[in-house]
């Protein structure tokens, strides 16, 4: 074979090895360039809204009509039967403890006292006589001038006379008490709220003559519905206004919440106590009570007060409630919050978030911490905001 032919064959073989290697290297370099220039994934869209701190507005508070009443009221009645001959007080009068309120005809009671006194006098005379007889018999018995049974009889007569005297004294005390029961006396300071018998009426023992409302602590009564019962707590603050006292506001506190509903109205009786009632507040007056929320912003932490969020925004991290917050880098953070109250479609929370921060409103179980997101407003956000303001 000629040398020129051999060189041509060798050159062709070298080209067959070099060209594929170059093509492979070029393809690898091109693929590396493509991987480096791949664009990042777009952020995930999440429904979020700025959190707005709420305050204890009248819309959040509970409003109920109230009636003023004394904490303690009792019926005043005679302890004996009789005919009323005099009444000293009338409806609406203020009375003092020990003041005479009414009297019965006490002629019969006075005669009973006189009879009991006469019986006591007779019993006392008998005691003196039997005592003298006993002393004489004792002296004669020492000289053996009388029989032993005669001395025993004298001792028995004296003992019976002493017992009769004690009985007569007790009867006199009962008669004096019955005479005293013919007068009706106030046992507390207070106001007459009703009168149920007039002069000349014959009343029985225990029949109500007056109703006395004690002076001192002043209560207000309201009837709460089942829907609001969970929002009323003992010690809760309230503001009271009365149409009869325009421009005046009175502070009150919830003192008692009935443990069971009324059988007919199906409402719960709530009792409030006025902190400083004053003389202007009269028993029986009606007014309006505004009960501040039991968990008011004053009890929230310094992160921004309380926030009303949709119930769908609450995410539970184990047993702890939390919410997803979009931070300044548009990434999600999980913040623990305190749920103060659950309503039908919303929840009132405190802590963990600040005023104006974006909070995820829905889909809280499909996101994760650190996820890059893009917040978008929910559909009909303006209508929902207007509805929340109206509530």
Automatic annotation (TrEMBL):
Q: Which UniProt keywords apply?
A: Signal, Transport
Where is it chiefly localized? Answer: other
Q: Which InterPro entries match?
A: Beta-barrel_RND_2, MdtA-like_BSH, MdtA-like_C, RND_pump_MFP
Cellular localisation:
Cell envelope
Domain (Multidrug resistance protein MdtA-like C-terminal permuted SH3) spans 312-363
Among its keywords, does the record have Repeat? Answer: no
Enumerate the Pfam families for this protein.
Answer: Beta-barrel_RND_2, BSH_RND, RND-MFP_C
Chain ranges of the CusB-like beta-barrel domain: 223-293
Query: What SUPFAM superfamilies does UniProt report for this protein, alphabetically?
Result: HlyD-like secretion proteins
Q: Which residues form the signal peptide?
A: 1-31
* Family in the record: Belongs to the membrane fusion protein (MFP) (TC 8.A.1) family.
Please give the name of this protein. Answer: Toluene efflux pump periplasmic linker protein TtgD
Which organism was this protein described from? Amantichitinum ursilacus
Q: What is the lineage of its organism?
A: Bacteria, Pseudomonadati, Pseudomonadota, Betaproteobacteria, Neisseriales
**Gene label:** ttgD
